[in-house]
Design brief:
Structural class: alpha+beta
Largest sheet: 7 strands, mixed
Radius of gyration: 22 Å
Bound molecules: biotinyl-5-AMP
Distance between the termini: 55 Å
CATH architecture of the largest domain: 2-Layer Sandwich
Helix content: 25-40%
Number of strands: 14
Shape: elongated
CATH topology of the largest domain: BirA Bifunctional Protein, domain 2
Number of helices: 9
């Protein structure tokens, strides 16, 4: 958000302020104050004025300014009504050298999962991608995927939804079926870099937020369907970004926090890697987020793949 507009919102947070007082506080002309207030009104802030001055009576429901308003995380947000994929846009931003940018959309027409699978993204979900340039070797980037899963799980739990994480990137509710529950969220991480250090990372997060059950793929769920009532997307996005930002700068804490929220460890699992499939018991997570599976007494480390939870025989 433009800096002066952010400063005006901050000033109005504690009660009404007159135009002249705002002008003085911000070191700009009264005409400039008026222009900025008009711009805030245009994007959906309710800023009535009376003899006490300007008041802040409401904020936009959703969009870039809505999410940035009150956000305690170091990200700029850009919002689109409809895009093919927020990951594609975030990748473009990242290759242009933009970092700490969140690309957010109401709808995606070509949302993607891992291995080019389709990701259903109708209007009403939370479809967002964070472009970052973290100071990490590529081997530790999976920790950011896990951090995003932790952030979404905490945001869901804070709203009374009994969510947990299925390795590596699914947030699910309940524990039935091969998905290990009904899928609430998926995460798609993409990156570019050399062996020692990444140039950029894009973390794509899809959360079924205000979607009614009928609009969801099979075995999926949404915050709205679980809560049985309305969901404020704005604060969900803020909670996820704030928690993710906290974990992104403390990657050493991620494995512990992930383990506390995950349902995969201790499960009988079926793993599908690029060229091979096998079954075993999920026993641990390595310090870079890989899954250790005990296959008939032999330990195998899975860095990337699909993981199904099997019912104990
Ligand atoms: C994922 O892939 O779970 C990663 C999904 C990432 C989506 C975000 S949205 C913002 C950003 N922009 C993008 O284009 N993508 C990212 P994977 O583990 O491969 O799971 C994909 C499978 O989940 C599909 O094959 C379907 O079975 C299922 N699926 C598709 N849409 C779903 C939805 N909305 N909710 C739950 N499950 C879904």
């Amino acid at each position: 958000m433009q800096e002066t507009r952010r400063a005006i919102l901050d000033a109005l947070a504690d009660g009404p302020v007159t135009g002249p007082a705002l002008a003085e506080r911000l070191g700009i002309s009264r005409a400039a104050v008026w222009k900025h207030v008009e711009a805030l009104r245009e994007v959906g802030f309710d800023v009535p004025s009376d003899e006490a001055g300007y008041h802040l009576a409401g904020h936009p429901e959703y969009g870039a300014e809505a999410v940035e308003y009150g956000l305690d995380a170091p990200y700029d947000v850009e919002y689109h009504e409809s895009v093919q994929s927020t990951n594609a846009i975030a990748r473009e931003r990242a290759t242009d050298g933009v970092t700490n940018r969140v690309v957010l959309a109401d709808e995606q027409t070509g949302g993607r999962g891992r291995r080019d699978r389709q990701w259903s993204s109708p209007s009403g979900g939370i479809w967002m991608s964070i472009a970052l340039a973290p100071d990490l070797p590529p081997a530790r980037v999976p920790l950011l995927t896990l951090a995003a899963a932790v952030a979404v799980t905490k945001a869901a739990r804070a709203r009374g939804v009994d969510a947990s994480i299925k390795w590596p990137n699914d947030v699910v509710v309940g524990d039935g079926g091969e998905r290990g529950g009904r899928k609430l969220c998926g995460i798609l991480t993409e990156m570019e870099g050399e062996s020692a250090r990444v140039s950029w990372v894009v973390i794509g997060i899809g959360v079924n937020a205000t979607l009614p059950g009928a609009d969801l793929p099979p075995d999926a769920t949404s915050l709205q369907a679980e809560i049985g009532g309305p969901v404020e997307r704005r604060t969900v996005v803020q909670d996820v970004l704030e928690e993710f930002a906290r974990l992104a700068v403390t990657p050493d804490r991620v494995v512990e926090e992930w383990t506390a929220l995950a349902s995969t460890l201790g499960q009988r699992v079926a793993i599908t890697e690029a060229t091979e499939s096998f079954e075993g018991d999920a026993v641990a997570l390595t310090e870079t987020g890989a899954l250790v599976v005990d296959v008939d007494g032999e330990r195998r480390t899975v860095y990337a793949g699909d993981c199904e939870h099997l019912r104990p025989v």
